[in-house]
């Protein structure tokens, strides 16, 4: 049995949905189909999820969804018309959205969650209706009926362990099951979404639950590339990656697959196959526990902006019991999570996502660190990019770090910080945001120029 997930780009128009239909029916093992909300048809287009967020905010401000409501309904109407569906499905979707927008009985957060989730929910209804119209037995399955339970963390839901046993029951249901991605239900019955792009997570949870042979993740590129194709033209495609490599790369900016989506598939040992809806013949990329081919130490280079670093130094820090705990305690009081913690004998840097910080508490927090920890120096650096050079092969190759550092120094990029994870699967370089692109290009040339030549 296969679980197949189609992203927003694969469902953006009737023409795309038709491709999805052909892919699903071409293999009888494709039983569980997870769908996103309609995505962008062209680069300046707006995803239905973003239209829904704007619509909900408009309702809060003015009492009606205005142009955003119309735009959402128009997207579904266009898709249905392209597919030759009658108006019944559009009436179902319109009624559902109007009902959700009128229900202000719960908190603002709950209201936003239910509107956001409706994008996938209504798309799943539409796609099931289309499959039926083509004479194929297909059923829309709501995550509540499937037993997909999640924690009550709006916008950051985590799956609850009992979910997997519930989902196993889906194996015995007849026909193709079309399930909306991106959200689940709390035990109390409230809708809670995963983080953005979280339909990948739903697909992985379902693959684990039904014990699928493979989780196929259909998107709009032929494969995961060794570097973001937006930074390097025609980068090398990756045929096989380990779960650990993909986790590091997606964490650090490979938006093609959500970084939280690997764990459920990994725990059940289910391979993930990233494929192209627009070119299903392409080989795609397989994500597996162990990979055979070891073409050099590095498999991919990812980068992401929007980080800051808090640098703290104190003479004899290494001898002070509890220093790290007290420092992290202060961060916890400001509800900050950190990404990396490179340290030396007398100093430590804390790398955080900048969007959690706030100018009003930033100075206050730095002062507290200085006085409460009696630090010699505390400073913050904003607008950093992290570049992750990833590959299982690094463990058995000498000199990867020096090659990377030399490639950066050759183009005059200053390395603000370096961190090598203990797993030796990745090396992290912190650079100024303004240097990110050229640094990635230089690293790509260093590690891949000979491979692609
Ligand atoms: N290393 C990479 N390899 C392939 N695609 C990448 C990479 N990094 C970023 N991307 C981008 O990810 C996009 C696919 O992800 P996304 O837009 O979330 O797809 P979907 O609509 O299927 O959910 C690609 O179009 C590509 O621009
Ligand atoms: N529609 C949701 C969830 C999702 O997974 O979308 P996509 O497959 O288009 O990345 C979002 O935009 O966040």
What would you say this structure looks like, in words?
By secondary structure, this protein is of the alpha/beta class. It folds into two domains: 2-288, Carbamate kinase; 300-447, VC0802-like (2-Layer Sandwich). The chain is 38% helix and 20% strand. The protein has an eight-stranded mixed beta sheet, sandwiched between helices. It has a six-stranded antiparallel beta sheet with strand order 12-13-11-14-16-15. A two-stranded antiparallel sheet has the order 5-6. β1, α1 and β2 form a beta-alpha-beta unit. α13 (400-410) packs across α14 (436-452). The radius of gyration is 24 Å and the shape is globular. Adenosine-5'-diphosphate binds next to loops. Adenosine-5'-diphosphate (ADP) is lined by residues 7-10, 36, 39, 197, 219-221, 224-225, 228-230, 254-256.
Descriptive keywords:
Carbamate kinase; 2 domains; alpha/beta; 14 helices; binds aspartyl phosphate; VC0802-like; single chain; 6-stranded antiparallel beta sheet; 8-stranded mixed beta sheet; 453 residues; binds adenosine-5'-diphosphate
